[in-house]
């Protein structure tokens, strides 16, 4: 195998689209499969099963069984079990679990109960399909994201995001227990062996933020060969979802340059060497450069796999 060894830090849907493009770009280069370090801050226990939404989004997308229209879950899924759970008053009425999706959660929960770690569970799940990438959770510890509200309430991230559609003003995001967590086995080694680490165009606060907060992760990135990020902001707007609310809560403007500055230059203790920003944000290149990060302007719409692969190529080239 020739070509770059790649690690991607990713959240769910944005991470999945980018990972699909990266898989394509690496195949064309005859390069080894990428290692994808996936956010587990979205994870939750619900109706007795463990959900890992970002891990499932990426797994389903790489397997080609994801629902591309709805944007989450399995294609062609049904909701018979969910209706029965609602009839029992179990779970959350505003959180739909598809039948096929529940199969995943049951399998995972069974293996966790048998003593497998989340890393071991994911390895077993990945055997079912030819994913074309190696998936690792950011950590094996349970560090589900909690949202602190202005009125002092603390909600699980999924309740805040899915039930309230991020409409309740947040003051902070926390991952209880993360100070005692460690990167999952293989994560630090993969970063050390990589020619380049890519920060996917994922939610900087609740998808990439938890990964960077795992002790040891920033040190691993500081020692990496190269780190390149891709802006999830295009034309000063989040493309999809409610990342702007998350950014606002931590005092970061919704702009490509502000997110780059939030990640920071590696030379100044941050995580980035270079930052891909959209053509719509070309004006912001000078601000990115002023933060000590090399700006690279490219089309950043992940319209289809070809477009995502072109972005992946641009990110790999930016690492040189
Ligand atoms: P989630 O975990 O499912 O919310 O997904 P991620 O955190 O991985 O990604 C969500 C982010 O992806 C959103 O905040 C968007 O800004 C970004 N995003 C979605 N589609 C695109 C796209 O086509 N191009 C770029 N550059 N960013 C995108
Ligand atoms: Ca997510």
Word description of this protein:
- This protein has a domain at 6-42 and 131-142 and 176-318: CofD-like domains (Rossmann fold, 3-Layer(aba) Sandwich).
- The chain is globular, with a radius of gyration of 19 Å.
- The longest helix is centred in the N-terminal third of the chain and has 17 residues, at 13-29.
- With 320 residues, it is an alpha/beta fold.
- It has 13 helices and 14 strands.
- It has helices spanning 13-29, 53-63, 80-88, 99-113, 118-126, 157-163, 187-193, 208-213, 217-222, 243-249, 256-263, 285-290, 305-318, and strands at residues 6-10, 34-38, 44-46, 49-51, 133-137, 146-149, 154-156, 170-174, 196-199, 227-230, 233-234, 237-238, 274-278, 294-298.
- The model has no long low-confidence stretch (mean pLDDT 97).
- The strands form four sheets. The chain has a seven-stranded parallel beta sheet with strand order 5-2-1-9-10-13-14, with helices on both faces. A three-stranded antiparallel beta sheet has the order 7-6-8. Strands 3-4 form a two-stranded antiparallel sheet.
- It is 38% helix and 17% strand.
- The protein binds guanosine-5'-diphosphate and calcium ion.
- Calcium ion (CA) binds at residues 11-12, 39, 42, 53-54, 207.
